[in-house]
Fold this protein.
Amino acid sequence: MQIAKVRGTVVSTHKELSLRGVKLLLLQFIDEEGRLLPEYEVAGDQVGAGADEWVLVTRGSAARQIDGSERRPIDAMVVAIIDSVSVDNRLLYNKKDQYR
Amino acid sequence: MQIAKVRGTVVSTHKELSLRGVKLLLLQFIDEEGRLLPEYEVAGDQVGAGADEWVLVTRGSAARQIDGSERRPIDAMVVAIIDSVSVDNRLLYNKKDQYR
Amino acid sequence: MQIAKVRGTVVSTHKELSLRGVKLLLLQFIDEEGRLLPEYEVAGDQVGAGADEWVLVTRGSAARQIDGSERRPIDAMVVAIIDSVSVDNRLLYNKKDQYR
Amino acid sequence: MQIAKVRGTVVSTHKELSLRGVKLLLLQFIDEEGRLLPEYEVAGDQVGAGADEWVLVTRGSAARQIDGSERRPIDAMVVAIIDSVSVDNRLLYNKKDQYR
Amino acid sequence: MQIAKVRGTVVSTHKELSLRGVKLLLLQFIDEEGRLLPEYEVAGDQVGAGADEWVLVTRGSAARQIDGSERRPIDAMVVAIIDSVSVDNRLLYNKKDQYR
């Protein structure tokens, strides 16, 4: 999975029927030092991630291993809201610090 | 999924039989700032996207999760015509503005 | 799918049994302006593409959605010989012009 | 598979239910000369890899070919802790040397 | 598939049980001119490729379309030892020449 930050949303009314009711988030990837990368992904979200939160995004067929999405034409899904990331025993990100 | 702009079409008469009747669009990817990227994708389209529209393209096995395409050798499909994209609460793209 | 030009062939006698009888083409990718890119792919071909022709190549599990190839360990297949590519209503490639 | 070094961990309480109990490691990829690359991956771990160990990471649908993870929305898993890597008959990495 | 050169081996004793008995080769990719690329892949090998040989490597779910590997968490497999590669009717590689 990749670490990404919730940057925005994508809205569409004219789409595959099976995508109805799926919230689509615009995620921007983050490198192992916490910097925003140029790559982004539009992913479905069923965990309820909010703006600026760090999330884990899964891609490929794994994105359909979620209840109700087995037959959706989705290649990326948010699967977790990140509490903390530690690198070399150093805390790179802590959600609590971001929201105090 | 990736955000892409409809740039053109690809026509083929000599192809896998299962691809008959599938419209093939040439899509060019767009970055999170709305700029055209050098990457493109030829994708099937069943939602009826038109020239210059912004669309969502799904890739990999997800492209076959569409009625009638389950057994087609297609690795990319247009799954939505985008109405709007918002980044950091700013409207990056609004389809209505493009067509006024 | 990606647009690619047939550049050559790959021959192997010592291979997985299920690959017997599959013609393997060396394809070089082409960008949206018609220029050769550094990326290439070795793909199976059952549509009969010839040297210098422009083709569509599908990758991933889609490459096995072809009669007789469902269980072959192939991750790329030629699925169409391209007649024409149009970008912004301009003809980028026309097979007839190439062979006159 | 890719060779990667265990750099850290990712913790999440709010996530897909099926991810409960899966340890998530932050892996950084290593090139064929043993240098750290900028690319990383967050992968599930059921083999018990520790900090700084070199591991093999598998991606895509292969990450679900592990007992108990068949239906998990995971696109990367640690599948082996590396003992040694040899390139051109030269020992590039030997786990024993790292831990003496 | 990609063309790669066998550069070395990876040894692991602590791994997923289903990987037992699978030889793991370190492959380095080769471009369409025969030059070594920085990208590598660790792949399973059941065809018996030897050091410095040019091979075809398949990636993704195709790597499991091999007898006995259907449930292995492997995302890359050697599927052929290359005899020759021809580009624009010029012989780029000929195995016999390499070993005389």
The interface with chain E takes residues 7-16, 18-19, 24, 26, 28, 38, 40-43, 51, 60-61, 63-64, 71-76 of chain C (CB under 8 Å). The mean pLDDT of chain C is 94. The first strand of chain C starts at residue 2 and ends at 11.
